[in-house]
């Protein structure tokens, strides 16, 4: 059995866990290859991984002041309104919203910020006639825990140089931290414009034709299924909200019952796990046709972005869940553009994670909220979209009914 040593090249999954405003967050990044002789890896991780094989793990705590980009008050800046470029690179108008992130390149006249910069900065609001922004890394100021899990070990061969990666920097780049709300209800304070869609025809017209296909690749589906299996207790009465022919539940998970609510009768009939199906348009009638506390778990997969009355539906989810019951919402970065609400298409993918979290938090009926992101897995061989390098990312939010 191969084991990690100083010359190893391996597949490592890095997991960053952190806590903010009573919410637990976990961000996982698949890294391949990781070079133990060339790359920048926390030496404590390296020492603890030496001698371990596939499945081995090491964990280190990273206090906020030891993060590679620690919080700095000098990164809190104020600018004149005319220093904010109010159009994106496509010429679309950009309206500032408190709590949202914007590319730093949209700021003019700020030391060290260049127009091409895509690093995020958070809009904090106004102070007099000035606009306030936070240019700190989204994870800055938080205590982190970093876990490395060995997923595979490559055969040792000759290398002729290569790029040196800083794996904490890589794992924390591209969005982790952006899901943390600036305050409960701020991100989920949605306007009528936020909830508009390109295609406002009745949903039963758009979904009349059955789509008996998978909308996410097999790696993403496996991740979602595994997490549902971990979160949903055996014997649970489950409601699959906005469901279809596949509820993404483990085959070996014994249920007390599965009710699937969707829009297409043919898709619902094909769901082999369902004990009960119901065609119901939540955008036309947000109220769920079920009794109070009728379910032990409510799941929603790759559909939350289509709700035009999300607050009302979240309140209904709480109503039909028994106290202590589970709500779990999973999604990726693929959807039907004509039917997604406008705000969803404008948000960064980690901000979408924050929006869903905020929808649950703002309702006040859920506790123990947690989020998960998983990125960077290779595109599975059975997926037709081989032009894409990576598997569809997975984002999840879950909690318990109070």
Automatic annotation (TrEMBL):
Residues 268-329 form the Methyltransferase type domain. CDD domains: AdoMet_MTases (cd02440). It holds the Pfam family Methyltransf_11. InterPro entries: Methyltransf_11 (IPR013216), PPIase_dom_sf (IPR046357), SAM-dependent_MTases_sf (IPR029063). The keyword Isomerase applies. Gene3D superfamilies: 3.10.50.40, Vaccinia Virus protein VP39 (3.40.50.150). It comes from the Bacteria. The keyword Zinc does not apply. Keywords: Isomerase. Transmembrane segments: none annotated. One of its GO terms (molecular function) is peptidyl-prolyl cis-trans isomerase activity. PANTHER family: OS04G0481300 PROTEIN (PTHR43036:SF2), OSJNBB0011N17.9 PROTEIN (PTHR43036). This is FKBP-type peptidyl-prolyl cis-trans isomerase 2.
């Amino acid at each position: 059995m191969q084991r990690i040593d100083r010359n190893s090249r391996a597949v490592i999954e890095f997991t960053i866990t952190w806590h903010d405003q009573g919410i637990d967050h976990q961000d996982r990044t698949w890294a391949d290859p990781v070079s133990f002789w060339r790359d920048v890896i926390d030496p404590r991780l390296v020492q603890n991984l030496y001698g371990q094989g596939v499945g081995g793990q090491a964990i280190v705590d990273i206090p906020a002041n030891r993060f590679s980009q620690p919080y700095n008050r000098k990164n809190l800046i104020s600018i004149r309104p005319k220093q904010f470029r109010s159009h994106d690179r496509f010429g679309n108008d950009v309206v500032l919203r408190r709590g949202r992130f914007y590319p730093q390149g949209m700021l003019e006249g700020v030391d060290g910020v260049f127009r091409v910069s895509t690093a995020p900065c958070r809009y904090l609001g106004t102070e007099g006639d000035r606009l306030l922004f936070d240019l700190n890394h989204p994870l800055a100021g938080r205590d982190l825990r970093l876990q490395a899990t060995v997923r595979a070990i490559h055969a040792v061969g000759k290398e002729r140089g290569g790029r040196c990666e800083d794996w904490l920097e890589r794992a924390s780049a591209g969005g982790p931290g952006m899901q943390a709300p600036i305050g409960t209800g701020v991100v989920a304070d949605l306007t009528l414009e936020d909830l508009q869609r390109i295609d406002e025809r009745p949903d039963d017209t758009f979904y009349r034709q059955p789509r008996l296909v998978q909308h996410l690749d097999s790696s993403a589906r496996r991740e979602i299924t595994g997490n549902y299996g971990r979160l949903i207790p055996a014997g649970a009465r489950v409601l699959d909200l906005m469901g279809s022919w596949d509820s993404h539940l483990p085959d070996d998970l014994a249920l007390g019952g599965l009710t699937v609510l969707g829009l297409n009768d043919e898709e619902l009939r094909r769901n082999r796990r369902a004990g009960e199906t119901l065609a119901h348009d939540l955008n036309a009638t947000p109220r769920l046709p079920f009794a109070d506390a009728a379910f032990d778990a409510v799941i929603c997969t790759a559909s939350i972005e289509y709700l035009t009355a999300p607050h009302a539906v979240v309140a209904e989810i709480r109503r039909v869940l028994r106290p202590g019951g589970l709500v779990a919402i999973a999604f990726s970065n693929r959807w039907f553009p004509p039917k997604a609400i406008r705000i969803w298409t404008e948000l960064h993918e980690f901000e979408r994670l924050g929006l869903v979290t905020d929808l649950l938090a703002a309702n006040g009926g859920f506790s123990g909220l947690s989020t998960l992101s998983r990125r960077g897995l290779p595109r599975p061989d059975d997926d037709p979209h081989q032009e894409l390098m990576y598997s569809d990312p997975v984002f999840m939010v879950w909690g318990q009914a109070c």
